[in-house]
Amino acid sequence: MISGTTVALLRSRPARPRRPFARVVAALLLLGVVVVGVLGGSSPASAHGFSSVVYAKVTSTKPTVVHAELGLEYDLMLVSVATSEHDDALHTQGQTAWDDGDFPGMVSAAESHTDTIAKYVFDRFSVTGAGGQACTGVLGDRVTVDLQDEVPYAHVSADFSCPEPSETQTGHVVTSTLFPDSETFVRDTKTIVTYDVDAKQGSATLDASQPSFSTEQSAGQRFWEFFRLGAEHLLSGIDHILFLVALIAGSRRLREVVFTASAFTIAHSITFILAALGVVSPPAIVVEPLIALSIAAVAGWYLWRLWRRRSKADELVVGEHGHFSLDRAGWTRLVVVFAFGLIHGLGFAGALGIHEAFSWQLLVSLLIFNVGIEAVQLAIIVIVFPPLSLLRRKAHRVSLWVTGVVTAGVFVMGMIWFVERLAAG
């Protein structure tokens, strides 16, 4: 039997800390914020697209001839060819025309120096036939120049003569190392290939880590290439990651995370497909600042709610007629996220850099790229939301501080990027 004295002693004993685990979680989250801040501060203002994209359309009408049409960023071609092949005349003539926006002059400069352009291209773009034997390339005399994403591109064509295929080897291997990092003019150049060769059609993306592909590659290999490209793009795009973090931090319940993530996915998928297929083509000078502004707006939305409602900022007030268990604030936020998701989809499309007429092969590649994006997005939600949810239940006030600090950091980075991108434009 417990005496009254014992009870008094128990009541007077100093209270034990009851939430050590929650405080550890809070510390880890704050550490994550610091890391994200460092990454964000060291990232360039534009995290979209690659420094350059090469377009290659590869076709064949018979096994011994492969035709390639290449799209090369014009001013990059000038400086790369001039430096590698010591053709200063091409650079001088072509750069003057480029500065003046003189498209006929750009064409004339390139067509006057197809020999040095050919040497540069064939040292870095090749086709291999049966038995690993190299095909011999000949560059066409004609060059055209047009705008792609507001940037002049030179289009050249080449015919590759290949050895007769054997019974065991009928495919071709395409390799591209155009505009490599070693030239120091650009970095992470991607070559987007669409092909109709050896009675096989499809798309492939080539980069420094995977510069070649075979027309005999399996469907699984093609899937992995574009899945990897989508995943890498989201992982390398700190602005998209911070936007997603702001969405998660401002979500009050799991259903809000699911609904907002779904709205964002549906929205960016719509504009991503339309922009990549060339149906809509807004300039990057408009898209990039809007993406940065969307990051600040979503973070600012939650900060405003914290300021207005204080400790009740994460309450979900649903009346009798609340659809999908969302209140008015939740629905308003959903609409805002959907609108900004449309803008982010344009950024994703700029990264893939495909501007082709519709084809089922292209559509499949775009969808696989999008699956890669969604896989990383889901992984971030799984990593970030459960600790925040646990913290909200175990240490409510601390959770408000943590989410406030996170969104404040995201808001600051979004505004910095917005100003930088406006200035750069």
Low-confidence stretches: 1-49
The shape is elongated
N to C succession of SSEs: HHEEHHHHEEEEEEEEHHHHHHH
Number of strands: 10
Brief summary of the model shown:
The protein is an alpha+beta fold.
What does this structure look like?
The protein has 425 residues and is an alpha+beta fold. Helices cover 58% and strands 15% of the residues. The protein contains 13 helices and ten strands. The chain has helices at 4-12, 20-42, 74-85, 88-100, 103-111, 114-124, 219-236, 238-249, 254-276, 284-309, 328-352, 360-394, 396-424, and strands at residues 53-62, 65-73, 125-128, 136-139, 144-148, 151-161, 173-176, 190-197, 200-206, 212-214. Strands 1, 2, 4, 5, 6, 8 and 9 form a seven-stranded mixed sheet that branches. Strands 3-7-10 form a three-stranded antiparallel sheet. Helix 7 (219-236) packs across helix 12. The radius of gyration is 27 Å and the shape is elongated.
Write the layout of secondary structure elements.
Layout lengths: L3 H9 L7 H23 L10 E10 L2 E9 H12 L2 H13 L2 H9 L2 H11 E4 L7 E4 L4 E5 L2 E11 L11 E4 L13 E8 L2 E7 L5 E3 L4 H18 L1 H12 L4 H23 L7 H26 L18 H25 L7 H35 L1 H29 L1
Parallel strand pairs: 1-8
Antiparallel strand pairs: 1-2, 2-6, 3-7, 4-6, 5-6, 7-10, 8-9
Helix pairs in contact: 2-12, 2-13, 3-4, 3-6, 4-5, 7-12, 8-10, 8-12, 8-13, 9-11, 9-12, 10-11, 10-13, 12-13
What attributes characterize this protein structure?
single chain, 7-stranded mixed β-sheet, 3-stranded antiparallel β-sheet, 15% strand, disordered N terminus
